[in-house]
């Protein structure tokens, strides 16, 4: 097949770029022609391809890349700043981030980062925008990455068995930095184990022969029965009794479980026993666990973002 007839291909004197489904292939052709007479070494630098791919007459295959994002990178590389978009949508920015990571071209887009990235930053914490993790990871934005990661530790829920979903019940997108989701789930399970442990700590005094009632003048086992019954009844109402043996079996998010636990009520035997129950100390313990939740960011992620910021 004549390469000049190939759909989605951009041709010039000595280089053919194979791309996919670009609305206007001529846009990319013009960009490539601006470097058409330059050296093989320069083509290696721009396209981040091997020397054999950059040789005269070789086909540089970008068919797996998002065409619009690729055109943006090539326009920058070839100094065609006047045709660059003033703004990007979230998914366009994500596509650019993917290519910057793939071809290590964050230096190219760095001057445009403020006007492309900053207007979209407020969307990072909304359901459906979890792939902002990848944008922050690529641009070295550790503050956004850490905040979003902790938000996911608290809000991720499991649906259809073990499928991760956001707080709105939507499945997470596929473009997540390597190792990030596993780290987030690890932090989630760690927090859930702390919540389960806090419940068990409240239950333990009721399991002994000693009276747990703390009434000053009239300790009473009936008070213990009311307190234990209140806790078990409350846990039943939120489907957490009997206590699950494994934290990762809990499908509800950490945040929702924490809210439900803090709202558990404790009846009192009478006015003389109003301070005997597990609340409000239990609610304060739950609040502390939630606020002290790990952000799930790995040292390797922090190192990568530090390196990105230097580029």
How would you characterize this protein structure?
By secondary structure, the chain is mainly α. It is 48% helix and 5% strand. The chain has 14 helices and 5 strands. The chain has helices at residues 25-33, 40-47, 51-54, 67-77, 90-103, 106-109, 113-117, 132-139, 142-155, 180-203, 221-237, 254-262, 281-291, 299-309; strands at 9-11, 16-18, 59-61, 157-159, 163-165. The strands form 2 sheets. A 3-stranded mixed β-sheet has the order 1-2-3. A two-stranded antiparallel sheet has the order 4-5. Strand 1 (9-11) and strand 2 (16-18) form a beta hairpin. The longest helix is centred in the middle third of the chain and has 24 residues, at 180-203. It is elongated and about 85 Å long. The chain starts with 8 loop residues before the first strand and ends with a helix.
């Amino acid at each position: 097949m004549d390469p000049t007839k190939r759909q989605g291909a951009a041709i010039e004197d000595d280089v053919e770029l194979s791309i996919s489904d670009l609305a206007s292939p001529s846009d990319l052709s013009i960009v490539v022609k601006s470097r058409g007479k330059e050296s093989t070494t320069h083509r290696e630098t721009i396209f981040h391809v091997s020397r054999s791919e950059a040789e005269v007459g070789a086909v540089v295959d970008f068919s797996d890349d998002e065409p619009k994002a690729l055109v943006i990178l090539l326009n920058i590389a070839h100094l065609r700043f006047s045709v660059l978009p003033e703004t990007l949508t979230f998914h366009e920015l994500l596509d650019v981030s993917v290519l910057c990571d793939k071809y290590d071209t964050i230096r190219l887009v760095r001057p445009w980062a403020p006007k492309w990235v900053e207007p979209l930053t407020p969307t990072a914490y909304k359901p459906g925008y979890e792939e902002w993790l990848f944008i922050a990871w690529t641009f070295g934005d550790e503050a956004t990455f850490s905040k979003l990661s902790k938000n996911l530790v608290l809000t991720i829920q499991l649906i259809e068995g073990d499928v991760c979903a956001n707080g709105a019940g939507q499945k997470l997108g596929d473009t997540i930095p390597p190792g990030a989701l596993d780290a987030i789930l690890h932090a989630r399970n760690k927090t859930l184990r702390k919540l389960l442990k806090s419940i068990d700590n409240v239950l333990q005094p009721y399991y002994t022969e000693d009276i747990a009632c703390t009434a000053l003048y009239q300790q009473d086992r009936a008070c213990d029965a009311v307190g234990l019954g209140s806790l078990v009844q409350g846990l039943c109402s939120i489907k957490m009794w009997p206590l699950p043996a494994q934290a990762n079996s809990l499908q509800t998010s950490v945040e929702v479980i924490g809210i439900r636990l803090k709202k558990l009520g404790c009846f009192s035997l009478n006015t003389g026993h109003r301070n005997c129950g597990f609340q409000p100390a239990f609610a304060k313990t739950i609040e502390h666990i939630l606020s002290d939740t790990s952000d799930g960011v790995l040292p390797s992620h922090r190192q990568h973002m530090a390196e990105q910021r230097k580029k």
